[in-house]
Amino acid sequence: MSSLPFGGLVAPSPNQKSLPAGPGMVPRPSRDVPTSATGPQLQSLAPPPPGTTAPMPLGPGPAIPVSPSTASISPAVPKDVPLTLAARYGRETAPVNGGIVWRVYPVRPDITGSFRPVREDRTPTPTLALPPGDYVVHAAFGLASAAKTVSLRNEPVREVFDLPAGGLRIEGRVGDVRIPHGQIAFDIFRGSQFEEGEKRQIAAGVATGDVVIVPEGTYHIVSNYGDSNAVVRSDIKVQPGKLTDVTVTHRAAVITLKLVGERGGEALANTSWTVLTPGGDVIKETIGAFPRVVLAEGEYRAIARNDGRTSEREFKVITGVDGEIELLSRR
């Protein structure tokens, strides 16, 4: 006789009489109790006979979907935080009203290891809306710059940068005559020319009239008039918030060289020229029929070579006196 798992207990009804259970006897309900009692029933685990309907199994019913609440909860999205930027020349000086380039960088590099700006602005006092986080803000004003780390959380932030810088504008003259644009250029070095050590160049080939923004301090200017030996060196001091005008005076002149077959004749083309000092130092080498050379005041010797023949002549340069030096070709 196989045993089946027991599905539960059946509690006796209060109106039932207990009968002694003897061998082979099964308790029977009282006549007063209807056979359709609603008390607990045993759950049969045996499969139903063929052609009958299986009873509904006891246990938990099917899950009934519950409609979600009309008020859905979504994760909070952080709002952008306003960041206002401004710059001044110093604690007690006026604000910088233009010429600034603002760049905002993340504090950590991207996956390539590079720092790329997340925002750039060129207005004097921009207000940038950025997600909360930490950033590095860089302000570039000409050759002057400053940087700060800024933390944005929930409240608007305003940052003021100190840029102690000034403007430098240079021009060259010979006597009272201004050297034309394009004939002179300036190189700027940090520190005085009389200081020991190598000077660091911060700007090269600055044209006449250009305004260069530099941090406050002393600078060494090299003025190159032409491309030979008309060079002047000078020191200048730049103050924050001020434009410093510098005039460099050259003692030089423009000399035109000419090789002719006879006095007053036409210049010979394809002539090679060498200009030397009386001591033999080469100042300028060029090729042409009418080369123009800017030379510092002093004495020189010109050598011309054409068609296998060589001619030379000594001459003198006087400040502000431009002239023509004619050499006669030897036959």
Describe what you observe in this structure.
- The chain is mainly β and 331 residues long.
- Helix content is 0%, strand content 46%.
- The strands form six sheets. It has a four-stranded antiparallel β-sheet, with no helix packed on it. Strands 8, 9, 12 and 15 form a four-stranded mixed β-sheet that branches.
- A hairpin with a 2-residue loop joins strand 5 (133-141) and strand 6 (144-152).
Shape: elongated
Number of strands: 22
How large is the share of residues in beta strands? over 45%
Helical residue percent band: under 10%
Mean pLDDT: 83
Q: List the uncertain runs.
A: 1-46
Largest sheet: 4 strands, antiparallel
Strands in their spatial order, largest beta sheet = 3-2-5-6
Gap between N and C termini: 146 Å
Element-by-element helix/strand order: EEEEEEEEEEEEEEEEEEEEEE
Query: Structural class of the helix and strand makeup?
Result: mainly beta
Radius of gyration, in Å, reads: 50 Å
In DSSP terms (H or I, runs of 4 or more residues), the helix count works out at 0
Topology:
Layout: E1 81-88, E2 100-106, E3 119-121, E4 127-130, E5 133-141, E6 144-152, E7 157-162, E8 165-174, E9 177-178, E10 184-190, E11 200-206, E12 211-215, E13 217-225, E14 230-238, E15 243-249, E16 252-260, E17 272-276, E18 282-287, E19 292-296, E20 298-306, E21 309-317, E22 323-328
Parallel strand pairs: 1-7, 8-15, 16-22
Antiparallel strand pairs: 1-4, 2-3, 2-5, 5-6, 8-9, 8-12, 10-11, 10-13, 13-14, 16-19, 17-18, 17-20, 20-21
